[in-house]
Amino acid sequence: xxxxxxxxxxxxxxxxxxxxxxxxxxxxxxxxxxxxxxxxxxxxxxxxxxxxxxxxxxxxxxxxxxxxxxxxxxxxxxxxxxxxxxxxx
Length: 89
Known about the structure:
It is a single chain. Helix content is about 50%, strand content about 10%. By secondary structure, the chain is mainly alpha-helical. A three-stranded antiparallel sheet has the order 1-3-2. α1 packs across α4.
C-alpha cells in the first residue's frame, strides 16, 4: 500500500476509538459509499500491512479488529501532515 486515503484513515481511527469490535461494525458507516466486499478487502490490506490485527480466536463466529502501534502511528502521521503549516500552503 503506497498511501492511505481518507477511508483507510477513517477505518483505522474507528478501530482505534472502539477496539475489539466485529469488522462489520466498523464498515457499516461506509457501506453507502462503497460495496462491503471492497471495504473487507481494504481491511485485509490494512491487516497485511500490519496496521490492523484480526482476532479469529475470539470464540465467536466472527473476527474482531484491533489497531497496531503501526496503525496508530499512521493515523498520527496523517494528522501531523494535515495540521502542519506546510500542508495548508
